[in-house]
Amino acid sequence: MKKLLSLLIAAAMLMGLSGCGDSASAEDEKREPTEEILESFGMDPELFSDYDYGRFYGKELTINVANWGEYLSMNDDEILDVNEVFEALTGITVNYKTYASNETLYSKLLSGGATYDIVIPSDYMISKMINEGMLRKLDFGNIPNIANIMPSFINPQYDPTNEYSVPYLWGMVCIIYNTKMVDGEIDSWSALWDENYAGDILMFNNPRDAFGIAQAYLGYSLNTEDFGELENCADLLREQKEIVQGYVMDEIFDKMEGGSAAIAPYYVGDAVTMCADNPDLEFVIPKEGTNWFVDAICVPTTADSEHIEAAEAYINFLCEPEIAFANCDYVGYSTPVTQAYELLDDEAKADERRYPSDEFLSEHTEVFINISEPANAYMQELWTGLKVGESNVWFVPLFLAALIAATIFVNVYRARKKKRDF
Amino acid sequence: MRKTSSKLYMYIVYTFLYLPILVLIVFSFNQSKSRANWTGFTLHWYADLFRDERILTALMNTVIVAVCASVLSTVLGTMAAIGINNMKKGGRTFLMCATYIPVINPEIIMGVSLMIFFNFFVMHSGFKFGFATLILAHISFDVPYVIYNVLPKLRAINPSIIEAAQDLGCNPRQAFFKAVVPQIMPGIFSGFLMALTYSVDDFVVSYFTSGTNVETLAVTIESMTRVKVSPKINALSAIIFLIVCAIMIIRNLLENRKLRRDLALSRAAVKGGERA
Amino acid sequence: MKASRALAIPYVVWVLIFTVVPLGLVVWFAMTDTDGKLTLDNIFAMSEYMSVLFRSILFAIVATIICLILAFPAAYIISRANKINQSTLIVLLMVPMWINFLLRTYAWMTLLEPNGLINKLFGIFGLGPYPLINNSGAVILGMVYNYLPFMILPLYSVMVKIDQSVVEAAQDLGSNKVRLVTKILLPLSMPGISTGIIAVFVPSVSTFIISRMLGGGTNDLIGDIIEMQFSGNSYNPHLGSAMALVLMIIVMFMMSLFNQFGSEEEVIL
To answer: Which residues are within 8 A (CB) of B89 and not within 5 positions of it... i.e. 6 or more apart?
Structure first.
């Protein structure tokens, strides 16, 4: 009966689909002038560069974009869908996918399961990928909007010659907490180890960010390669595991906004978004210092060669002031695009947590750099060990006993059955 | 007393099975995105669902993959079943063991092994993950179900029927199509439907073999449950549930009518017998 | 009909290419390092993951036992109902399976969260909130919930064949309920039990979604760790393959214990 159903459901699905197939073909018309397209999205053409986005029209290209979850202005009726704007301007289809962490992106690129034309990893991962030959040099002739990027973000430590990446958004790591569930104010990483909040604490589900917090709390460098220090961090994290409710990445939105957890470390930009959705939430940069990160747009070497120019046009597009503004306004992260920053309201600009002063950045924050492979591998190992947990010795005998019992039972049963059959 | 306690037990078991589905459906009508607080009735998630290109595309991909994979695996599986049926013991046992592997092997191992396998081609040629890998992977786990459905039907065929057909002037090919195929048709059909079911339902193997360009519905749902979850997903499950329920109810009514008729017939027969 | 044996050739080729070779690649990956040199390091590295392996097996065993305990009376009650009720009950059992398991598991998150519906219910009586999610209990609950029908269906299909007169005869002869179950029902439904055990244990021991959704990353199972090696936080397909290999061996062992390997019975599910 399960079988019959499948056929009928498939038929029902097909019927539903034929409807949506028609709407796609309706778009097959001549491109309108740029001004009209932009105005139809309620944008100001004055702020847009005169870059030739129309040159791809009619080529039916598709580019594969991989970005962090909730990291682009889209998926909401009331805001600008920037991918839609790009598709309207260029006729290129954007196949947009999300990933949860730098390490996941790295795995996906290496395991071959993914062929992306655009990826947006963070600083340390970019230098790792450059070292391993995973990123492609960009043709900045196709990305004139690089001129919009603030000078302080050009030639960064992770890409010293600025050949592989264009900064997208940046921010710091903060603690976000629910004021209704937490007494008083929080100003230190120690809150994440506070037993009063046992079972209400969330933690990063990726090794670099999780170790980064332990390192900041213990006063180590965020880029320590000292095995002893890494072990101390792992011990601290293991201690924390007892009171942690869960290890999360993008799931945090659901859990913090819904009030199912009281306190969690996360990126400032997302904290801004969560606070906007739930006024009970508040966030703070801990006094011990924190990680300052830049996420930048890159093209992997595995990208389809026919898509490269389109990918570069997409990078240029993301640096358009209005687009960059729409993105940073929606996702809450800080923008490196000068004109987009100027479009922000004064409240956002004045917020030290979102746009800290240069002194604050140099005194209280540290950027992740790509640590040496042995240290990185050791950190991975400690992390997996932490997630896996202690080896409970009694499991082994218990399991063996169960297996032996099952074997005896089954064999006795079979023997008796045979005897009966005779 | 015994009746009531077993009734109560069944109510508990079925409540356990249906509670989460009920929750999904109720919250598909919730005004806010919250999954815990009821803020008012709305239908706009349903409207949004039908405008969500990602979900609709994934639905279409699922159908394409499932239909292609199940049709191909029906052909392949039926041929294999006929071959296996005529094999000697050794080859037959080997092939049945091989057929058993995809059925009992954990899905994650199947997914991972196919991912490694396909990746080998990706690295050494222009081959890419997409419809091809998905369909190939789906065929691999679909074929055994076709074989398991066709083989018993083949074994139930009386060999003398084929001989009779040949005696009546059919060549072996004609004998096969006229005498054998009609008899195994129900098996082929149920095998096809089972394959289709498994393809539509599959998540794990698709997760590892879909790549970037093609996403099936289950893979889309998984990536949506990672980020902020939209009640559109609830709306989708409510619709699927409704369709399934409708089909099940119709099917059940038809079957029950048949059962009742059979029951009435047998009673009538018994009565007739008594009278005689 | 000898020529028809040739009809199996495409399938033989298929099995070799898409089942045997990929599994061989897993074995090969498990035995090599990134430079392609033969090594046993990956297998030895498994010892560090023994606890997670045993946790997976333990959770799967507990889930299987709970399923068996829940399913046995349920299957018996269904099999003793009249024909019309039987088919209705079986249909009702299958309807939930048609909703993608990801969605159903996701719904459990809604129910179990600290401010979820169950805790809200407790809240009305001034109790709680209790930590119901992100612990081992929640993961096992997810397994039991998802795979319970896999236990009920094979049990039902053997129990329905037990003649009511056998049960009645045993009762007439003075068997009490316990003896009825142990002497009649259990032995007669053994084939269903072993199919059910396999059908619940195998997906439970290898799951990676249920543990992530309901375990909150604090109760990772072997499936999660394997997934992590291929497309997650720590990329190491060689180690991942070694884990997959060990998992495969465990499943084969379970199979040999509970089923006639390679039997030609029709697969129920």
So the answer is: none
Q: In CATH, what class is B53-230? A: mainly alpha
Whether the predicted interface score ipTM is above 0.90: no
**In the complex, which subunits touch B with 3 or more CB pairs below 8 angstroms?**
A, C
Name the CATH superfamily housing domain A171-291+365-388: Periplasmic binding protein-like II (3.40.190.10)
**pTM of the predicted model, to two decimals?**
0.86
How many domains does one find in chain C?
A: 1
- Whichever domain contains C198, its CATH number is 1.10.3720.10
Peptide bond into C129 cis (omega under 30): yes
User: Does the CB of B247 have a partner CB in chain A at under 8 Å?
Assistant: yes
Would the CA dihedral through A178, A183, A187, A189 be positive or negative? negative
Task: Identify the burial level of B26 via C-beta atoms within 10 angstroms of its C-beta, where 0-12 means exposed, 13-18 middle and 19 or more buried.
Answer: middle
Is residue C33 in a domain? Answer: no
CB pairs under 8 A between A and B: 110
CB C105 within 8 A of CB C210: yes
Both structure tokens of A382:
């400690």
Instruction: Mark A43-76 as b/e (b = at least 16 C-beta within 10 Å).
Output: beeeebeebebeebeeeebebbbbbbbbbbbbbe
Rounded to whole angstroms, the Cα distance separating A398 from C249 reads 19
A65: left (phi over 0), alpha (psi -120 to 50) or beta: beta
Task: Verify whether the Cβ–Cβ distance A113 to B211 is below 8 Å.
Answer: yes
- Chain C partners within 8 Å of B9 (Cβ): 73-74, 77
Q: What does the pLDDT profile of chain C (269 residues) look like in tens digits? A: 556 788 899 999 999 999 999 999 999 999 998 888 888 888 877 777 888 888 898 899 999 999 999 999 999 999 999 888 888 898 888 888 878 889 899 899 889 988 888 988 898 898 877 888 888 999 999 999 999 999 999 999 999 988 888 888 887 877 777 888 888 888 888 888 988 998 999 999 999 989 988 988 888 899 999 998 898 888 889 999 999 998 988 888 777 777 653 343 434 33
Concatenated DSSP letters of B198-235:
HHHH--HHHHHH-TTT---HHHHHHHHHHSSPPTHHHH
In chain B, DSSP finds a helix count (H) and a strand count (E) of 12, 0
**Domain covering A28-169+294-352, topology:** D-Maltodextrin-Binding Protein; domain 2 (3.40.190)
Q: How is residue B169 annotated by DSSP?
A: T
Q: Which of C175, C155, C178 is nearest to C166 (CA)?
A: C175
